[in-house]
Design a protein that fits this description.
It is globular and about 60 Å long. It has a two-stranded antiparallel sheet with strand order 1-2. A hairpin with a 2-residue loop joins β1 and β2. The chain has a domain of 236 residues. α11 packs across α12, α15 packs parallel to α21 and α16 runs antiparallel to α17. With 462 residues, it is mostly helical.
Length: 462
Amino acid sequence: MVGALSALVALFNPRASLERGSLVLQYRLDLDVYRVGAQRVLDGLELYSGHFPIIGDIELPFTYPPISALLFTPLTVLPYTASSVLLTFATVAVTWWVVAHAVHSAARVERNSAGWVSVGLTAVLIHLSPIHTSITYGQINVLLMAMVFADAFVVPRRFRGLLTGFAVAIKLTPAVFGLWFLLRKDWGSVVRMGAGTVGATALAWLILPRDSMRYWTQTLRETGRIGGEEYALNQSLNGLLYRLGLRAKAADGGGVADGGGVGEQVGEALNTAQGASGSHSAYGAQLWLVLVVLALIAVGFVMVRLLRAGAPIAALCVNALFGLLASPISWSHHWSWAPVLLVAIGCYALASPRGSSGGQIYRQGANWHEASRREVPPASPGSGLDARPLAGPRWMWVALLVAGFAAFALEPTLYVPFNDHRELHWNLWQQFVGNAYLWWTLIALALLGTFARTPRPTCPRV
């Protein structure tokens, strides 16, 4: 009931409903882009020929691979309202399913209890920005997350990898989860993942050869079509470098040079040092690649630690964090894995030993946790249950949890200047607030990597 009510609330636009005195359905821009793109395919029009009209004066490009346009064709038959309702309820439902599995595994709570607890958790999590914006825009990121999650923990081993490969064919970004299979030395799943991607892509190529050729040889390289890299909601390392003035488009000659923002000052200093010869852009690109490699090494290390400690849920979420850090653009709705990691951290906070202070804060929650897990057998390698994998005082994990909820619920980027390149004028405190997702992620990686328990002789298999 709570989940259904939350889904109903998510369907409507609160401000417009109050202004008109009646319920007004939330307009979902990206859902409309999917519908218009699919209609162009059915009409035989070019899918990647630029921007096309969506609503009013808004024109946007279709940015997904061709197979996704084919999958979106049912949206051209269904009324827009029906599509909006179905996608909203599907997003809430799969969020509940993923959270329930995470609670069952990370907290070692019996499945039925985990399911009921997750109803309340889902009602909270859908108001965090990553899931809320996914619902608001009509995005499919949560559905893709559920596909990867199911592939990792539910799909029989002999078929594992195919579903992730299919998700890659739909939206490329799930390709980072190849790291999950590689670190687990699950070579068969690596092969099946590749086969799923190639198979779905080949099918689209047979049906849409013109659009497939253009997408894979031209459109894919045009990252600017997705949006401005410096935009505040781009919470990736690439976006951070742009806002700090360490990256600039080649055509900008090094970026904005007037004002007193941190990014402007750094950009001006680099231009002066390099003679404003355009090398600023190349330098920034090289720095970004270095940071991506460092992020890969760090994430790989943390994942191995978590896998050996018996925390596959956390390890998979950390894998997702690498994709978010490394991607040229990671909008807030791309961060759908962050709420799942918050749930896991919450479970770890209940399970972690008490520290010297703050140990009484969650006594009641810990008692409930202990009572609920009596029906669950002890975790063992291969059981899929996280076996209290993290050391460290409870207050530390609670602090990380609170900070994460603050970052993803309050959406700090809304409290600093954004749009019209104003991010390039940010001062020091605005850089701190406006890049909150990134700072929290780096702290979470450091704590998870440091406090994962002593590795076991073998990686747990799920």
